[in-house]
């Protein structure tokens, strides 16, 4: 096995990916995590609903602990973005390419989470944590029955709007001058709930001690909170290249987190569901256990036939 030959490549180093790597490394499978820095969870100041932390824990500390645990069992964690996945021409698994190199692997676990993009709008950074949020699941209870804007134009903003609708009906989507790009099924759900969509370009996020609204084409639109939901599931490009089925912008998996493509599993936010840390950790473990069984049975040798 060469330096870049692995038993398992995990795409994404969040809770799902780290959990999976702990299992595969402990099973003595050579594992590498290809991770992108500046994850959304790292910005979470306090997490109070994760098992085993009665006093709460910051997102950064939780991820740091997970990385150390995975590395203790032999996982290599690299800050390199996976750009392309394809079938290994040797007929034994897959090839994952980054900007720097390529990794040959017997199996894949896809867990890149949701890739958020910070828009270059004046005032966004100033009001982060003061009305501007990047996590509906985390912060939606704070905005029960309040006016909330959602910024985005792809599948992510639709899914976040549907989640937020359980807490407040006073929602408006802002595309910041962009056209909507999302599956028809998601667009239809927004229409049924009569969630309005504003396509004007945002000039500025405004407020005093906290956010009070958006200035759009000279007009102030007041709100109590703004959820940033630009971007989409980072797993979709991998789905297209490997033939994984998607539905409503997420990867379809079975009860064992298998994508249906031999030797390829997925876990975490990219498969939809509760979008909770505890759920992601459990899904990562299930994905790893399935892949461990596949590799030990040597079935990967027939995957690309």
Element-by-element helix/strand order: EHEHEEEEEHEHEHEEEEEHEEEH
Total helix count?
Answer: 7
Q: For this structure, what is the CATH class of the largest domain? A: Alpha Beta
The gyration radius over C-alpha positions equals 20 Å
Uncertain runs are none
Q: What's the story with the biggest beta sheet?
A: 7 strands, mixed
CATH topology of the largest domain: FAD/NAD(P)-binding domain
CATH homologous superfamily classification of the largest domain: FAD/NAD(P)-binding domain
Q: Indicate the mean pLDDT.
A: 88
Q: Could you give the distance between the termini?
A: 21 Å
The structure class reads alpha/beta
Number-wise, the strands total 17
How many structural domains can be distinguished in the coordinates?
Answer: 2
Shape: globular
- Which CATH architecture of the largest domain is right? 3-Layer(bba) Sandwich
**Helical content class:** 10-25%
Strand proportion, as a percent range, falls in 15-25%
